[in-house]
Write a structure and sequence with these properties.
Blueprint lengths: L16 E4 L5 E5 L1 H9 L3 E5 L4 E4 L31 E5 L3 H4 L4 H4 L6 E5 H21 L7 E2 L3 H14 L1 H4 L4 H15 L6 H8 L7 E2 L1 H7 L4 H14 L16
Parallel strand pairs: 1-4
Antiparallel strand pairs: 1-2, 3-4, 5-6, 7-8
């Protein structure tokens, strides 16, 4: 359990509280924390505390999973891969590093892609998932560690300005190279002359680095989110036994 050292032996992933609409339609299931969040804000009342049922007292925008094949059945707290009920962890089939940048209307579908796995199975699969991330980093030109995008060209110019401004650096650079550096800086700003004061102002600029994560870079270039989601689901199935998947869990769920 190298990646999941803090997981407790008796942890439960699914609370299986039933949430009903004001009209009495079963909308979805949630954990105890979410149910009590509704109750504490007077957004719901108990229907049956023993049966873990609450009823919303406001009209929701939609009916959640009502009339859908997935999301209303009781979820078993066991590893979907091996069936173990100990040291359970929450696994995002579509990694959260991507899902969190999905369009808002697609984020509501993420519960389908949150499955329970024991720590050992989870850790074993994460190494395989990382290999796919590495392939995506090449396909989408999205470095695993992210990339600095904003002000990148300006940062390069400032580094060149340092080479000209400080004698201990410039004295070790051939004159031909110094001339090229000077022309690069003038060309960037459209200057005709490069003065000492301009160099000083340039190297004293407060540049704010903005790093975009690997996930953000990938999601910006995704044309078909449905296909991207199915790819990760298929990868999960292909690299695990998945003998204990929830009822009606499907690669094609939308």
């Amino acid at each position: 359990m190298g990646l999941f050292r803090t997981v407790t032996k008796d942890r439960k992933i699914y609370g299986n509280w039933k949430v009903y609409s004001p009209e009495g339609h079963l909308m979805f299931r949630c954990d105890e924390k979410k149910a009590k969040w509704y109750l504490a804000r007077d957004l719901a009342d108990y229907l049956d505390k023993t049966e873990q049922e609450i009823k919303l007292n406001f009209k929701p925008r939609g009916l959640g999973n009502h009339n859908k094949d997935y999301g209303l059945y009781e979820m078993e707290n066991k590893c979907v891969n091996c069936g173990d009920v100990k040291f359970l962890t929450r696994h995002h089939v579509v990694p959260y590093c991507y899902r969190k940048f999905f369009p808002l209307e697609l984020k509501s579908h993420q519960s389908h892609d949150i499955l329970s796995m024991c720590a050992d199975c989870h850790e074993e699969y994460e190494f395989k998932a990382f290999k796919l991330k590495e392939l995506l980093s090449i396909e989408y030109n999205a470095p695993i560690n992210g990339d600095i995008l904003d002000n990148k060209d300006l940062i390069k110019v400032i580094k060149k300005a340092n080479c000209l401004y400080y004698p201990d650096i410039s004295n070790n650079i051939p004159k031909e190279r110094l001339k090229i550096i000077s022309n690069d800086i003038k060309s960037y700003f459209g200057w005709k002359r490069l003065t000492k004061s301009r160099l000083r102002n340039l190297i004293n600029q407060d540049i704010k680095y903005h790093r975009k994560t690997h996930g953000e870079l990938v999601v910006e270039k995704i044309n078909d989110f449905n296909q991207f989601t199915k790819m990760w689901r298929k990868h999960f199935l292909d690299n695990n036994k998945c003998e204990f998947l929830p009822k009606n869990w499907s690669i094609d769920y939308e």
